[in-house]
């Protein structure tokens, strides 16, 4: 999704328009997550860019979209550009919790 959203409407209040935009973005993410995953991927991730227009859009995390929209409304801007692209990703293995040389003698994993 690459779209410039307008927050102004002659008949719809600003708060309702903001909620409608957030809902449209969430609906897009849900729809993309339901698609079949490509081979060698575990989950859908999203690459996001946010800005006042496409030229000055900066990379943000998908969880920051609503915060960015709220900040934009607080600054009284009437439109913004959002790019959300679904990317299949593979989960990374976590590093071992205990590193070689650590003293793990005091850990009791038996629950006693």
Layout of strands and helices, then pairs:
Blueprint: E1 2-6, H1 14-33, E2 43-51, E3 58-60, H2 65-74, E4 79-89
Antiparallel strand pairs: 1-4, 2-3, 2-4
Main features:
four-stranded antiparallel sheet, alpha+beta, 2 helices, 112 residues
How would you characterize this protein structure?
The chain is of the alpha+beta class and 112 residues long. The chain has one domain (2-89). Helix content is 27%, strand content 25%. It is built from two helices and four strands. The protein has helices at residues 14-33, 65-74, and strands at 2-6, 43-51, 58-60, 79-89. The protein has a four-stranded antiparallel beta sheet, with helices on one face. Strand 2 (43-51) and strand 3 (58-60) form a beta hairpin.
What does this entry show, briefly?
With 112 residues, this protein is of the alpha+beta class. It contains two helices and four strands, in the order E-H-E-E-H-E.
Number of strands: 4
The computed structural class is alpha+beta
Element-level helix/strand string: EHEEHE
Which spans of ≥5 residues are poorly predicted at pLDDT below 50?
Answer: none
Question: How many domains is the backbone divided into?
Answer: 1
Beta percentage is: 25-35%
For the termini, the CA-CA separation is 53 Å
The outline comes out as elongated
Helical proportion? 25-40%
Q: Taking all residues together, what is the mean pLDDT? A: 89
Total number of helical segments? Answer: 2
**Sheet with the most strands: spatial strand order:** 1-4-2-3
Rg measurement, Å: 21 Å
Reported for the largest beta sheet, the result is:
4 strands, antiparallel
